[in-house]
Amino acid sequence: MNRDDESVLTRYLLGDLPLADQAPIDERLARDASYFESLCALEDELILKWHRGELSDDESRLFTLTYLSSPGRHARVWSTHELIDAIERAKPAQQARVSIWSRVGRWFTAPRLAPQFALAVLAPVLVAVMGLAVYRLNTVMSQLKRAERDNVELRQQNAAAQRLAIAFTLSPVGERSQEATDGTNVVRIPRLAAEVWLQFQIADPGTTAGFDAVLESLERTRAATSRPARVGRTDAAALVTVTLAAADLPDGDYVLRLRRAPVPSSDIRDIVATRAFRVIHE
């Protein structure tokens, strides 16, 4: 995969890349400042296209899911909206300034039918009008600079949030539907976290390939979904890691089931381990 391809980076920003393809981009962003700046510029262009209605239906849907559901990214989109409004407000002042200079030039070059003292009468008026136009233009430019500073700060916060991943170790608590007890796994997700790593140990399965995990909401508010699971051997057992986006884990109770790939000529999957947990966003 060519990670410099603009379409690939656009899919990365929209959350449309598989986790395996996201990892190399995350690593390069952490060590390559120019690559990070290029991605930020592409993100600015993506947000502007959304404001202008230039995204495709699929891109617009992914943008809404990725940017408008996250408080940090939503603030970034709103900041860009404010910047666009400031630019639009600056245009009349700039046009008025050009118009004043154009009229002054025509006045001086046109044949004079009025007495010469008219120049002395009009000069203070012209100075006052030009001073007002310059003052308004300076005010608008100050607003633009302030909006740009806010945009840079939001970009930095958003970049930090994109790289923040939180890992939780799940103990072998059984399925439950009653209120939480002292033994319940509680996954507390910070506000700026972008990814959540759910980890737990199992007995050595003999192979680290052919596993996936099924995440199900006990409240039945969301359908069960299959997730890739990484299994790595340790000295006496194996460590399972399931990576999820923080936005895919709203507050509530969940059950995570680790499954082994079915044997040939069978569609039945063995359930290797089960973990129950509660999600609380802070």
Architecture overview:
- This protein is of the alpha+beta class.
- It contains 6 helices and 9 strands.
- It has a 5-stranded mixed sheet, with no helix packed on it.
- A hairpin with a 4-residue loop joins β6 and β7.
- α1 packs across α3 and α5 packs antiparallel against α6.
- The longest helix is centred in the middle third of the chain and has 47 residues.
- The chain is elongated.
- About 5% of the residues have low confidence.
Secondary structure layout:
Blueprint: H1 6-13, H2 19-31, H3 33-52, H4 57-67, H5 71-109, H6 117-163, E1 165-169, E2 185-189, E3 195-202, E4 211-217, E5 225-228, E6 230-233, E7 238-245, E8 252-260, E9 270-281
Parallel strand pairs: 1-3, 2-9
Antiparallel strand pairs: 3-7, 4-5, 4-8, 6-7, 8-9
Helix pairs in contact: 1-3, 5-6
Q: What is the N-to-C order of secondary-structure elements (H for helix, E for strand)? A: HHHHHHEEEEEEEEE
- What's the helix count? 6
Strand order of the largest sheet: 2-9-8-4-5
Largest sheet: 5 strands, mixed
What is the mean predicted local confidence, pLDDT?
Answer: 77
What structural class do the secondary elements suggest? Answer: alpha+beta
Radius of gyration: 29 Å
Report helical residue fraction.
40-55%
Distance between the termini: 37 Å
Q: What share of residues are in beta strands?
A: 15-25%
Shape: elongated
The unreliable regions are: 112-119, 175-181
Give the strand tally: 9
